[in-house]
Model the fold of this input.
Amino acid sequence: MAHDFLKRIRRGIAGLILASVMPCASAAESIVLASTTSTEQSGLFDHILPIFEKASGISVKVVALGTGQALDVGRRGDADALLVHDRAAEDKFVAEGYGSYRRDVMYNDFVIVGPGADPAAVKGAADATGAFGRIAGKGAVFISRADKSGTHAAEMRFWKAAEIDPVGQGWYKEAGTGMGPTLNMAAGVDGYTLSDRGTWANFKNRQNLTILHAGDPKLFNPYGAILVNPDKHPHVKKAAAERFIDWLTSDAGREAIASYRIGGEQLFFPSKR
Amino acid sequence: MLAATFSDALALLATFDHRVAEIVGLSLRVSGGAVVLGTLIGLPLGACIAVGRFPGKAAVSVLINGLMGLPSVVVGVVVYLLLSRSGPLGGLGLLYTPPAMIVAQTLLVVPLMAAIARQVVEDAWQRYAEELAVMRFSWWQSVTTLLYDCRHSLLVAVLAGLGRAMSEVGAVMIVGGNIDRATRVMTTAIALETSKGDLPLAIALGIVLILIILALNALAFGLRRWATRRFG
Done:
């Protein structure tokens, strides 16, 4: 009796396993793009990827991580291409042979956001470095990404320029998380943080947060595309990944990037060639 | 603000489209696959530990019980390292695909299902040990007979596994990558919407997730009742 029962179950299960695994094997060509939380959470990919897919028939699977982590995924060969924003780390990645080449794709800027009441008077600062100095001087709560992302790298450059070592200070909170969760934290405690403009523009849980400082040329935030080196990782889908990178920097791709807007505001600007 | 978020979430439920249905479907496929594999591995494993006599049995029982609290994110990292192109199983190219997510969730639910099965079968074993001995059942026959006799109680193990698999986010996020229309499931979609600060949408998806888990439990409850009445 028991064995009949088990046999029946076994037959059913074999079918179920097949059914659960089969639909994953799709015929259409696809590449894995490791990118940043800022590009994903800004909504840019939802806008441009369908346009590329339609033109090329190649579907782009985006894994959104911090730039540091995305470069790591590329180093291990788990992505075909990268779209990230930490120029120094990107150049190192290519120089070490993990990437075949890097191309400028687009840019926008970082913004310093904080509570509307602005206890550290960041609004009156002459430049971004001065704004960071005022936050430290006042000891106002600052939420850091602290996740080796491009935004985190930019933030650390500003602290260095202001000659401040914030790590370990009581007012400096290292969140170790993506841009969105960091903004959620800043909104929750009326703290300051550095955000990329794309994530900020698409972020809905702002509460008292507002942009307090923007426009300093040092807040420039360029994004680059990298082909993961097929010599290091032979399984990289070179042709399809190159087609995507070529498209991003072509007239059609530049137009797609420039046409992404939230509330009339353009979030990403194609790089000049 | 909490009340406003919830009422916005309820309003959103009416607007859900096929994209949400796709995400729900993948959740069911991945977690369902993991629970099927977990049932195949975990229940016999638990029964074997319950019936078997071997040195270190107590230690194994404690280990299995302890692993019920295995952090999903640790499982995610371990499976990532295994399936990464630079890892030992990289050649399979499974990373960032639903099968990788099934593997990770299976590792998560096996200890949980085995631990519950061990307890259930051990209790039954103590009751029927003499009868099974009189009938000269082999060790393996005892295991299968007890598993069959305890099938109604073991449903709890299956449901616990399903609940754990459907609700975890750490493992599927890392090995699946939360790729739109490929590996995005309920929990990773909720995490993404929370990241965007779209809390009403996150809550609305959360409500859908809870309703599905409730519906599956109700289905199991009804099936069990029907089976008890029909087959005794």
Remarks:
- Chain A touches chain B through 41 residues (CB under 8 Å).
- The longest helix of chain A spans residues 2-21.
- Chain A is about 40% helix and 25% strand.
- Residues 4 and 100 of chain A are 59 Å apart (CA to CA).
